[in-house]
Amino acid sequence: MKNYEKSSFYKIFFGFFISASIFILLLGFLYFEQHRNLIIQKTAMNMHQYLLQIKETNFNYQQDGYSYTISNTKKVEKELPRKKGDKYFKAFSNKFIINIDAKIVDDEIETLKVFTIILQVFLIVIFSFISYILAKKSLKPMVDTISHLDRFIGDLIHDLNTPITSILLNTRMLRKDINNEGLKKINRIENSANNISFLYENLEILLGQNAFQKIQLNIFSIINETISTYQNLYTNIKFNIEYDDKDICTNDIAITRILDNIISNACKYSIDENPYIKIICKNNQLIIQDNGKGIKYPKKVFERNYTENQSGYGIGMHIVYRLCNELGHSISIESKEHEGTKVIILF
Fold first, then answer.
1. d(CA 133, CA 127)
2. Which one-letter DSSP state was computed for residue 115?
3. How far is the C-alpha of 322 from the C-alpha of 317, rounded, in Å?
């Protein structure tokens, strides 16, 4: 089950389960209170029966747990028995107060309480299974639709790969036999093809079609290769690299995509005057800093489809965040508008 499926499943499941549980607990409480009152009323009837028996036997009748006293208490026949100390008592007419051992009544109430709790737990367990089934059934249409869409997009991006590769190979061959004016046009075609290829690779990751295994590697060559690509495209930007010669535990394909997306954003949103991108890879951390236009809401930048520019797709930094999570890397971003952006990755 994918993350979005788990999230939707848990929301539906807990929605059903919590609602049902609250309803069961409320019904259980009402059931307990009603039957507890019935026990008290039954106790009052037993007390009345005891009073009749002692009157009929001229006060010679005895019953375990029952006793009586004579008092000047006013007539309170309609009151229910009340507990005082280890006795329940009720005052009757003719100055009689009937007492009953509290243990007799309390044991019956405790039995009722245990039964109510067991019944509630049983019903909650039953409704947890019902909630699970309902959540699965509610989720199925969405999962089927998304799976169908994923398969369609997956087939589409795989079909795109062949013409993109063909375009790039042919443009490289054409470079050899073309004049300067034609070369500019070829460069534009190649840049457009590279952009499509870049989007294709991002979509592959977005669909979760790759499993990334971590290995020890030196990423300096990957950084250099990525920078070389963007130096050719953005000749006005100054690139600066600082690094130590230590291996880090990551994945070469994933770190390439991470670097590609971050540096691509830094280049796209660079300023016109003296733009620079600084890359520091030291002490098991990678820092990519620029003096570009900055981000208005940096906390939102990792959200899928979030973009502050209408020309963007809003998936690049979301993919960076996903890849870092999959690899167990920590990522944070600091940015202010018109001051630049700093992305920090801890390996």
1. 10
2. H
3. 9
In which residue are the tokens 């998936």 written?
Answer: 315
Whose CA is closest to 243, among 275, 288, 213, 276? 288
What pLDDT, on the 0 to 100 scale, is given for residue 55? 82
What are the phi and psi torsion angles at 256 (to 5°)?
Answer: -65, -45
CATH for 215-346, options being 3.40.50.2300, 3.30.420.40, 3.30.565.10, 1.10.630.10? 3.30.565.10
Retrieve residue 1's tokens.
């089950």
CB count within 10 Å of CB 8 equals 18
Gap between the Cα atoms of 143 and 203, Å rounded: 19
Label residue 290 left, alpha or beta by phi (over 0 means left) and psi (-120 to 50 means alpha): beta
pLDDT of residue 135: 85
Q: What is the mean pLDDT of the chain?
A: 82
- CB-based burial label for 196 (10 Å; 0-12, 13-18, 19+): middle
Q: What is the residue whose two structure tokens read 């630049």?
A: 340
pTM of the model: 0.52
What was the pLDDT predicted at 161? Answer: 64
Q: Is residue 65 a contact partner of residue 104, using CB atoms and an 8 Å limit?
A: yes
